Amino acid sequence: MKVLFFHLMPYAYLDLNYQEKYKTDWVVLPNTYFDPVKGHELYNRYLDELELAAELGFDGVSVNEHHQNAYGLMPSPVVMASALARRTKTAKIAILGNAFGLREHPLTLAEEHAMIDVLTGGRLISGMVRGIGAEYFSFGANPAFSHARFQEAHDLVIQAWTRPGPFAFEGRHYNFEYVNVWPRPYQQPHPPIWCPSLGSTETVEWASHKSRRYVYIQNFSPVAAVIRYLNMYRQMAERTHGYTASSHQIGWAAPIYVAKSDEEAVAEARPHIEALFTKFLTLPFEMLFPPGYLSMQSLKGMRAVRRPAIQGGKVSIEGLMETGIFLCGSPDTVRRKLIESHHALGFQNFLAVLQFATLPRALTEKNVTLFAREVLPALQALTDKDYAGMAEAAAE
Amino acid sequence: MLNETTIEVRGVRLNMRRGGAGAPLLFLHGAQGYAGSGPALEMLARRFEVLAPDHPGFGRSDVPDWLDDVPDLAFFYLDLLDALGLERAAVVGHSLGGWIALEMAVRSTRRIKGLVLAAPAGIRIAGVPRADMFICTPDELARLLFAGDGWKAWTEEQQAGPDALDIIDKNRFAAAKFCWQPRLFDPKLEKWLHRIDRPTRILWGEEDRIIPPAYGRRLVELIPAASLALIPRAGHLLPVEAPDRFADETQRFIAGIAS
Question: What is the pTM assigned to this prediction?
Answer without folding.
Answer: 0.95
